Amino acid sequence: MRTLDCTDLKCPLPLLRLKVAINEGDEDPFIRLMTTDAISLRDIPAFCNRAGHQLVSVTEGPPHAFDIEVTKS
User: What is the pTM assigned to this prediction?
Assistant: First the structure.
């Protein structure tokens, strides 16, 4: 599983970093994105739904910190 540390990055950067990671063609389809941007909780699931990727989980950690796991299609 690849991990993208997008802590302290504001919208739309976490989503853009996820898109780049998906398009890199890595054999591992699992991506974990760490973010403190609450807007990503709306944008990333919507992107996964439109693009056909699977949103595996969204977990809230310390205040305003989120782990989002995605499986690329």
Answer: 0.92
Is there a catalytic annotation at residue 6?
Answer: no
| Annotated catalytic residue within 3, 9, 11, 41 | 11
Domain 2-71 CATH class label: alpha beta
d(CA 5, CA 7): 6
**Distance between CA 61 and CA 56 in Å, rounded?**
16
Residue type, 66: F
pLDDT tens for each residue of 21-68: 999 977 899 999 999 999 999 999 999 999 999 999 999 988 889 999
In this structure, the number of other CB atoms found within 10 A of the CB of residue 55 comes to 15
Candidates 4, 28, 18; CA nearest to 48 is 18
